[in-house]
């Protein structure tokens, strides 16, 4: 199973690199929404990275962290888009 | 020798990383936030989907796989919703979408 | 002089009003008088009503418009389309109460002026099967034809869907049937009213069961401790949220049918996602970035929250299209390329969503373009 483990870790590494690349968009902007989108993508990548690690290290408990992180990521996007408009309402 | 099982996982991972790259490239190259949201909301969702499928396959059957599937469903539900919320916020703020006429003005 | 008639529960509309004329109630004055020699031009206004946050304002607008608006009406018909066979007797009762409330409101709005306006309230379609949005359109147009009504005023939040979650894009459909349709320019007071809604035991049980299932799934064990704490947590969640999370009625048969059709829909959606993803990947990685983004708007023929949400998310998931805003059935979609725009307006996804929620018959309906909606481009 080492091949699969290696592949999973390499993929996780690739996602880390991608996330770092996306940091450019977060820093650059130019609007708030651009940054939120980029942060959201980094968040999704993070979830994937955590899940890949869980699979590679064969420790399923880590998946719970990924689940919670996915929830937080979603909430963050919604909260920021809500607070950047005055429109009010729940969604 | 690579078994079919390992090959499937690696294929899924390659696909996942490929779409992850597409999402990142799209995020950097596309001209405005609406078009960027396209890349973010779906190529990334599909990329994440494939990678999570690989993780699920690697974990084998059982509860962890159920959790990964749950994660997958959750991402598929929330990513578009988040993109929708963000772009609507942008539209409400009056940010105009980029059109092909803007090409040449530079970014 | 104002005259308010109420009649309920008869589908045969022409008989109905004769039956009920004995129940005529006086409004705006202490004594009921007949309409006497008032000139009858026969202009009538049809107002479909249902439980809605803007109903009160719609009634007020209808009455004011009929009395002093540009086109005066001699009669306003408030009708509640409700089916006993679909929604049950209890719902018919509440519809009846609502119509009585509407009659009272209309009376208040007419006030002491005692203008020459007939207000009628009626429950229609009681013995019909009202499932698909088309049924509502047919019912309303039939009623309008029988009564010689040409104008319709719509409550913007009209949704006869507490038990039948279908809000037709009535405006377009009724106009096609030859009626003059106007949507009342009223807004609900605050959005907060809509957060908490009426719900019954069904919603509570379903929510509790879902929470319990999720708890046990995540916990991954069926030990006594987990069973007990899970039950307590599920009960708390359901108690707090049962009137917020689930709005529609819980009908197990329909739920199962929808889930089954959802299983058919999912592979189709996945296929669409993959195909369109490759398309976007090509576009994004192409050196010259061949994009031609444009915002299109169209009215989708899906009605009520969950189908609309499903369609909006499906549109967003299929690359090249991104739902920016949805107001009722009006979708504002950002499209990345010409071909994704074509796909969107062909309505394949929309048909698929209709199939999931309304069954096979509804899936065959026209797509946005066939309905004459070319995506009304925004500048």
From TrEMBL, chain A:
It comes from Halorientalis pallida. It is found in: Cell membrane. The chain crosses the membrane at residues 6-24, 36-57, 63-85. It comes from the Archaea. Its main location: membrane. GO terms for cellular component: plasma membrane. One of its GO terms (molecular function) is sodium:proton antiporter activity. It holds the Pfam family MrpF_PhaF. Keywords: Cell membrane, Membrane, Transmembrane, Transmembrane helix, Transport. This is Cation:proton antiporter. It is a multi-pass membrane protein. NCBIfam families: PRK12599.1-3 (NF009244).
UniProtKB/TrEMBL annotation, chain B:
Pfam families: PhaG_MnhG_YufB. Keywords: Membrane, Transmembrane, Transmembrane helix. InterPro entries: PhaG_MnhG_YufB (IPR005133). The chain crosses the membrane at residues 7-28, 48-77. The lineage of its organism: Archaea, Methanobacteriati, Methanobacteriota, Stenosarchaea group, Halobacteria. GO terms for molecular function: sodium:proton antiporter activity. This is Na+/H+ antiporter subunit G. It comes from the Archaea. It comes from Halorientalis pallida. PANTHER family: ANTIPORTER SUBUNIT MNHG2-RELATED (PTHR34703:SF1).
From TrEMBL, chain C:
It comes from the Archaea. Gene3D superfamilies: HUPs. The keyword Nucleotide-binding does not apply. It is found in: Cell membrane. Keywords: Cell membrane, Membrane, Transmembrane, Transmembrane helix. The keyword Lipid biosynthesis does not apply. The chain crosses the membrane at residues 199-218, 224-242, 263-285. One of its GO terms (cellular component) is plasma membrane. GO terms for molecular function: monoatomic cation transmembrane transporter activity. It is a multi-pass membrane protein. PANTHER family: NA(+)/H(+) ANTIPORTER SUBUNIT E1 (PTHR34584), NA(+)_H(+) ANTIPORTER SUBUNIT E1 (PTHR34584:SF1). This is Monovalent cation/H+ antiporter subunit E.
């Amino acid at each position: 199973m080492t091949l699969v483990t290696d592949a999973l870790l390499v993929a996780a590494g690739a996602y880390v690199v991608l996330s770092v690349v996306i940091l450019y968009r977060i820093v650059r902007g130019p609007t708030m929404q651009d940054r939120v989108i980029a942060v959201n993508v980094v968040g999704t990548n993070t979830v994937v990275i955590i899940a890949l690690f869980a699979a590679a290290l064969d420790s399923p408990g880590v998946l719970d962290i990924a689940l919670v992180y996915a929830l937080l990521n979603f909430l963050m996007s919604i909260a920021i888009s809500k607070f950047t408009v005055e429109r009010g309402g729940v969604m | 020798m690579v078994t079919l099982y390992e090959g499937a996982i690696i294929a899924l991972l390659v696909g996942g990383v490929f779409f992850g790259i597409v999402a990142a490239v799209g995020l950097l190259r596309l001209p405005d936030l609406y078009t960027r949201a396209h890349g973010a909301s779906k190529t990334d969702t599909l990329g994440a989907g494939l990678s999570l499928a690989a993780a699920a396959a690697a974990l084998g059957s059982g509860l962890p796989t159920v959790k990964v599937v749950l994660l997958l469903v959750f991402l598929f539900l929330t990513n578009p919703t988040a993109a929708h919320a963000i772009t609507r916020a942008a539209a409400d703020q009056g940010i105009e979408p980029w059109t092909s006429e803007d090409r040449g003005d530079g970014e | 002089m104002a005259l308010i008639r109420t009649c309920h529960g008869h589908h045969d509309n022409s008989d109905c009003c004769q039956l009920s004329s004995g129940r005529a109630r006086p409004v705006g004055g202490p004594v009921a008088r007949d309409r006497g020699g008032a000139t009858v031009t026969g202009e009538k206004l049809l107002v479909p009503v249902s439980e809605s946050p803007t109903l009160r304002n719609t009634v007020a607008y209808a009455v004011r418009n009929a009395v002093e608006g540009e086109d005066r009406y001699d009669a306003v018909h408030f009708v509640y389309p409700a089916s006993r066979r679909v929604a049950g007797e209890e719902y018919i009762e509440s519809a009846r109460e609502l119509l009585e409330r509407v009659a009272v409101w209309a009376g208040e709005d007419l006030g002491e002026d005692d203008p020459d306006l007939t207000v009628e309230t009626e429950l229609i379609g009681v013995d019909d099967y009202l499932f698909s949005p088309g049924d509502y359109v047919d019912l309303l147009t039939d009623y309008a034809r029988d009564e010689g009504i040409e104008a319709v005023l719509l409550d913007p939040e009209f949704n006869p869907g507490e038990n039948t979650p279908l809000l037709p894009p009535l405006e377009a459909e009724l106009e096609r049937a030859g009626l003059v349709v106007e949507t009342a320019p009223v807004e609900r007071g605050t959005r907060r009213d809509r957060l908490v809604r009426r719900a019954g035991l069904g919603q509570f049980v379903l929510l509790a069961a879902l929470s319990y299932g999720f708890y046990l799934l995540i916990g991954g064990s069926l030990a006594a401790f987990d069973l007990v704490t899970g039950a307590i947590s599920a009960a708390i969640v359901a108690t707090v949220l049962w009137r917020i999370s689930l709005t529609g009625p819980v009908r197990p048969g329909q739920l199962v049918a929808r889930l089954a059709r959802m299983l058919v829909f999912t592979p189709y959606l996945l296929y669409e996602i993959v195909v369109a993803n490759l398309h976007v990947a090509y576009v994004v990685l192409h050196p010259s970035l061949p994009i031609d983004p444009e915002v299109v708007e169209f009215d989708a023929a899906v009605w009520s929250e969950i189908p609309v949400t499903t369609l909006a998310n499906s549109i967003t998931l299929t690359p090249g299209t991104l739902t920016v805003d949805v107001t009722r059935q009006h979708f504002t979609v950002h499209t990345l390329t010409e071909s994704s725009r074509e796909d969107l307006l062909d309505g394949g996804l929309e048909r698929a969503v209709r199939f999931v929620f309304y069954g096979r018959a509804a899936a065959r309906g026209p797509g946005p373009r066939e309905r004459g909606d070319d995506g009304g481009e925004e500048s």
